[in-house]
Amino acid sequence: MCARGSREPPAWRKDRPELPNLGRRPMEFARDYSYFVVAGYHFLLQSDISSSRGFDARENQFVMTPTTAFTLDFAAATDIGCQRSNNEDSFGYDAEEHLYVVCDGMGGSAAGEVASGTAVRALIESFEALGLEGTGSQPPPPVARRLAESIARVNRHVWQTAAVNPQLHGMGTTLVCACLDGSQLVLGNVGDSRGYLIRNGVCTQVTLDHSFLAEQVRSGNFTPEMAANSNLQSAITRAIGVVEEVEVDLFAVGLELEDMFLLASDGLTRYLQPEEIAATVTASADLAPNCQNLIGLAKARGGADNITCILLRVGERGESEAPPPADASSSDAPSSKDELDDRGEDSPAEDATPADLPETEPEPQCPAE
After folding, report:
1. What's the CA gap between 350 and 6, in Å, rounded?
2. What phi, psi does 17 have (nearest 5°)?
3. Does residue 40 form part of some domain?
4. Given this model, what pLDDT does residue 138 score?
């Protein structure tokens, strides 16, 4: 079990409740990876799940049904919260790959922010590198496999970084990420940062928390009420970089137009129930204000930890919007806070959108003392 400890984080890129009616089934994906099927995901690897849509048990192979080509709009924001002296959360994205990640570092002093920032950068770099392995007649690995292997590489990198630097011993980070894969979104997580689906006004947690309390609730030893009142809110059972090998959970969701997804650290999710998230996030509104509204609610209720979220919205890709080639490089346009800062341009210190210059929103406030 890992005890979590809490800068202005970089937005770096190169550019359960239970799950009723979502059809989650655990599967073997590869050694050290758990794989789940959510809402009609097609990428199935075992014949014993032949009842799931898109799987041909006779040939034991994956079958993809032609579907609408999707794209993702997104916005992201982070806040130090009301009680921390520094921000150990980090978020990042590669808009060309439609890859998004939130990490919540731990380890005290500067180690937490080093862990989360290192993990964000390593995930984006590893995912791109694996995509470049497909050359000539060999396609790149499937998105789900690239994501799983990338997270495994991230874990080893953070663990090795801590091992060679005594000041960083014991550092680690949670990780939740999402990547567009045709007509589905693949999510991966380690720790208690969460991924939610918001569809038709209903918010459902997709990922599973790797925390002591969540596991006690799932095993029936605690009720949700007992867990909510426990003083063990920060005890997690898996984290990136704490051990050399870590088990990764992967999930996938079949997409519908106007679906929204929220990736968030527990500084947000400990204060907001799914129904409150659904009521706060409006699909027709700009995403950046939605992020600020979620952060504002968490701060108004105490904001004891750093608060970070990425909101994604599913849209239909226009005919002129061809998907980027596998070896596409970053565009010249700045696409993260770090890049904007490097170029000396003015930018909101803690927000990121596809344009990277959202309209300024009022600063979320902490409760009056």
Report:
1. 16
2. -55, 165
3. no
4. 76
The secondary structure of the chain in percent helix, strand, coil, rounded to multiples of 5, reads: 25, 25, 50
User: Hey, how many other C-beta atoms are within 10 angstroms of the C-beta on 53?
Assistant: 14
Structural domain includes residue 342 = yes
Phi-psi domain of 84 (left: phi exceeds 0; alpha: psi -120 through 50; beta: other)? beta
pTM, entire model: 0.74
pLDDT confidence tier of residue 96, bands split at 50, 70 and 90: very high
3-state secondary structure of 266: helix
pLDDT > 80? residue 355: no
Least confident of 170-179, 290-299, 315-324: 315-324
The listed range with the strongest mean pLDDT (40-49, 254-263, 275-284, 347-356) is: 254-263
Q: Note the pLDDT of residue 212.
A: 81
Look-up of token digits 């959510």: 38
Q: How far is CA 186 from the centre of its chain?
A: 10
Q: Are strands 61-62 and 99-106 parallel, antiparallel or unpaired?
A: unpaired
Query: CB count, 10 Å around CB of 159?
Result: 19
Give the chain's domain count: 1
- Which domain CATH number covers 175? 3.60.40.10
Report if residue 150 sits inside a domain: yes
Sequence-separated (6 or more) residues with CB below 8 Å from residue 102: 89, 90, 91, 175, 176, 177, 193, 263, 264, 265, 308, 309, 310
User: Does some domain include residue 81?
Assistant: yes
What mean pLDDT do residues 91-115 have? 91
Query: Measured between alpha carbons, how far is 187 from 364 in angstroms, rounded to an integer?
Result: 28
pLDDT of residue 362: 61
Full domain range(s) for residue 300 = 2-15+68-317+333-352
Q: What is the DSSP letter of 35?
A: E
β-pairing, 184-190 vs 61-62, is: unpaired
* pLDDT tens-place string over residues 269-300: 999 999 999 999 987 778 999 999 999 999 99
- State the alpha helices, DSSP H only, in the chain: 111-131, 143-163, 212-218, 224-228, 266-269, 274-280, 287-300, 337-342
Contact 354, 95 (CB under 8 A): yes
